[in-house]
Design a protein that fits this description.
Layout lengths: L2 E11 L3 E2 L3 E2 L7 E10 L4 E10 L11 E6 L3 E8 L8 E10 L9 E9 L2 H14 L1
Antiparallel strand pairs: 1-9, 2-8, 3-8, 4-7, 4-9, 5-6, 5-8
């Protein structure tokens, strides 16, 4: 089961960038939970996260396969990505865009982590059963 950090905990981000790629070729499931954790921010700045895919780890798709809109506050932001219809994807990486505006220094400063966890297929089956039983 995949459980890794694309961006290690307590990483300071001050400019746009990309994480190292992760190989998901050995994943049992094609469903992944990405969690953006923002632990430090300054006012008047934004953080936007995109997840990019590649078949070979060299050539990356030009558009993200999933993403989180701009975030401005400390918190944890989950993103569930289903790749069951994309067996060609073997590598994933995070890309972020940051911005800062207003008075004072114009360099953004975030302390973040991006974690990716494979979601077991049984988890989805159990969740669907619970939802069905509740309705």
């Amino acid at each position: 089961m995949i459980d890794a950090f694309l961006v290690p905990e307590a990483t300071v981000i001050t400019s746009n960038g990309d994480s190292e790629p992760i190989d998901i070729g050995g994943a049992e499931s094609r469903l992944f939970l990405f969690t953006l954790s923002i632990t430090t921010v300054v006012e008047q700045e934004s953080f936007e996260l995109g997840i990019f895919a590649s078949a070979d780890g060299t050539t990356w798709e030009t558009k993200p396969i999933a993403g989180l809109s701009q975030q401005f506050y400390i918190g944890e932001y989950p993103l569930l990505v289903d790749l069951s219809q994309r067996p060609d994807i073997r590598f994933l990486r995070a890309h972020w865009d940051v911005a800062r505006w207003g008075r004072g220094p114009t360099t953004p400063r975030f302390e973040v982590a991006v974690r990716v966890r494979e979601v077991p297929p049984a988890f989805l089956s159990e969740a669907r059963e619970r939802v069905g039983a509740a309705s």
